[in-house]
């Protein structure tokens, strides 16, 4: 099983440093925290550079269309401590906007473009937010649940 | 009056050295690249969307269509993720675990054989190409024996594997594995020791450790840059904790290191298969799983060491028979993101080599 970081301590530290911005997110994995979108870049920088966390690797960047919101999911990994953390950001259904973290990990560049392309999440501050897999003229975002499949 | 002019060149999508339908627009100053822009998506089939309308079992064959030179490993990643979501990773029978390791490592050998072969062809070394494809073909014969398919096996199942090994497989596999070190030595002799090859690949497209981590490289490409990491050793899944193998690590992270790391990895894979063939027990190959797979509500992110890097599946389940959301983290998709950075300022013919050294497969990039 994955090695899990002490979330209570982590959330406490983050809240102390950046104001009320993080909370524990209860799910079956026991490794998720939820953060506020406006503090995302600061939190990610802290998670990457603080040697206690040392999350040098962005393992995965995903977006999920839940009935109540869009959730962007960041899976982080530390090569030294081997622990994992899932950072979740919940976004408004009508206007899904989240700051881009390309300044933290360049690996996010293509993955954010993909999430924009297929799910319609807008990553503010992204250097080149264009469709990546679909053609530029494509209308809609196929991975949304309201997208109609047709053969 | 003499004047120079910047030239825009389309590399691909139908160009043999892009290894698929990858297109890159290059801005050239003379023969030196000023800027490279990736254009992806020519092979996009919407597999992530398709998964939402397929049951968990029905999705298994789609995995072979991702990285089509390492189908067995993709399927393993997927079934492992579902097993983790269902909490049955401990219940997989021993024999199935060994079969997965044997076939997975054979598939890794096949994938790396293709890598070395196509790398050789990209620097105009046709002999090594035929050697590589000969070796791969014999491995594919073995995969065909067990699954009936050469490229897209559809052999892994949630809870084990589809069928037991056929009669004569162990002997045939043993014979090939005993012979394989000679094959690798042959490749090493004709390619690695070759002065022309070295001149073409040494110091081409170097990636530093920091840059590799920043761009999210995984697998052999990351190890070539000097990061000592391997999921099979650091976070063993399946039964990898029973195997003892070295993790080859490069120094400079140039194209030559990326080739060397893969050659060394092939030697380690041979060792793993050898031990697995010796230890494989008798017994069932399927755990007792329900006919209809219905994982509990929740999510899982699971990845394994694929031939190209860490292939990951993020599955969100709403408790029904179909995944609510299935995300495929494709190592090639993220690895190719570093190519514009690598290509900057280098010679056009070196860029082709640098691209080949990243080991991309378009089926997985575009999904």
Give structural notes.
The complex is a heterodimer of chains A (151) and B (367). Chain A contains 3 helices and 8 strands. Chain A is globular and about 50 Å long. In chain A, the strands form 2 sheets. In chain A, strands 1, 2, 3, 4, 5 and 6 form a 6-stranded mixed β-sheet that branches. Chain A is α/β, with parallel strands linked by helices. In chain A, helix 3 links the parallel strand 7 (97-99) and strand 8. A 3-stranded antiparallel β-sheet of chain B has the order 1-2-3. Chain B has a 3-stranded antiparallel β-sheet with strand order 6-7-8. Chain B has a two-stranded antiparallel ribbon with strand order 4-5. Chain B has 14 helices and 8 strands. Chain B is globular and about 80 Å long. In chain B, strand 4 and strand 5 (160-161) form a beta hairpin. Chain A binds chain B through residues 2, 27-29, 56-60, 62, 64-65, 73, 75, 79, 82, 86, 105-111, 114, 118, 131-135, 142-143, 147, 149, and chain B through 40-41, 44, 46, 48-49, 53, 213-216, 227, 229, 234-235, 296-301, 303, 310, 312, 314, 316, 324-325, 327, 329, 333-334, 336-338, 366-367.
Which key terms come to mind for this protein?
heterodimer; A: 151 residues; six-stranded mixed sheet; two-stranded parallel ribbon; globular; B: 367 residues; three-stranded antiparallel sheet; 14 helices
